[in-house]
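Dock adenosine monophosphate; give full complex structure.
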Amino acid sequence: MCGIVGIVDSGDVSFPLYYALYALQHRGQESAGIATFDGLTLYKEKSQGLVAEVFNKKILCGLLGGTGLGHVRYPTTGEKIPENIQPFTFTFRGRKVALAHNGNLVNTNNLREEYEGRGQIFCTTSDTEVIGNIIADEYRVSEDVVEAVAMCMRRLQGSYSVVMMLDNEIWAFRDPLGIRPLCIGRTDTGHVVASESVAIDALGGSFIRDVRPGELVCLKGGEVESHQIAEASHHAHCIFEYVYFARPDSVIDGRLVYDVRRRIGHSLFEEAPVEADLVSPVPDSGMAHAAGYAEASGIRYREGLIKNRYMGRTFIMPNQKDREIAVRIKLNPVRGHLKDRSLILIDDSIVRGTTSRRLVNIVRDAGAREVHMRIGSPAIKAPCYLGVDMPTRAELIASDLDNDEVCSSIGATSLHHISISALIRAIGIPKEDLCTGCLTGEYPLAIGEERCCPRNVTCVAKHYQAGLESFSKE
Ligand code: AMP
């Protein structure tokens, strides 16, 4: 759970990078960073906090150059220590390098051990540094970036969308399974790669297309070059990006996320219709799903909970009593809508069950007669190892409770999760091209003792070269 962006422009890139990171803030709130290059010097600024807390005008004016990249972090691997804040920067054979990564490797420990065995030192505990080391090691041999990234891809197992600055070039690549998103856009004065299309929108740019799984693109001097360096028999796009994680106004792998969520709402009604006075979303994560349920059912959409959008992480909560007050400040029930009404309350997911239990209590306290919970993801039964922050199996409420038991645990009148098949239809991508590990416990690549349905990956480095819009075999 991180957001990445890289820009090559005829003007300075620090402000555009800042705007793009602002648009990607939902992907990570722990820390933020930017690195730029002006032809001579690499500039960087990174620290803990939200984008608006890390940067100000003075800092951005000091980040010079027309090439740069940025990162917002939500730590899934690696400790929460300042060393792990991205982008990582280093100099290699006189070239200034910066690296930003979204995803999670599952073979980091083996790779670290191997490279440490050769005397390599690591300054962080993050998997991203391992990627940088492998690329540098391979580049040392071939002096060819395409070859070095292709060799690196052969070693990496897991999810990775990566943006890399090499002097005044931005290189970006996506793992062969396409687990995390990455897309390319054009502005009036340059090119952008970013985790989600909303970052391109924020710059007034136009979306060109997604980076293909296994593809490496290079932005330099107003041109974009593409190399398909690995291919998989099937992809494994993360279903959770569509259900919860991505912004609803993003287009990922050709699908507008809002519309996927609306279709999920339609299916929730078809699978579990119920007579009620109103359909209400859990703000903000259940809004598009609830709009879909209301459309399909004809039941009126009315907000029963209002979220305070100004409550940041800095809210001071010294003790348990204040924590309870904090929940009430964050989400306030609209009593006039809820009193004596039956309610269909829609959220994107139940993970530990704590949020749903609390919300059912709040709306019941406000006078709701019946609370029918409808959930936009199937029951989450297994952890995610590929970049979404999920608790262990023991903490997942649905890992050992069935639907009725979860329903009574959260205190709802009824509960329905969308079925896996309906979710797949709503996304519109074939089942074998999706990762449903958190729902089924079966992952697209080998992870410890977990069950696996592997995709075959072939590395085809340099066999393909393609233009941006077209894609033809050489
Ligand atoms: P829980 O209380 O653990 O059941 O959390 C479920 C709520 O957290 C839902 O309202 C989701 O919108 C949200 N959520 C789902 N997945 C995540 C995640 N990986 N990180 C943070 N919040 C999440």
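Observed: Residues 244, 282, 285, 347-356, 388-390 surround adenosine monophosphate (CB under 6 Å).
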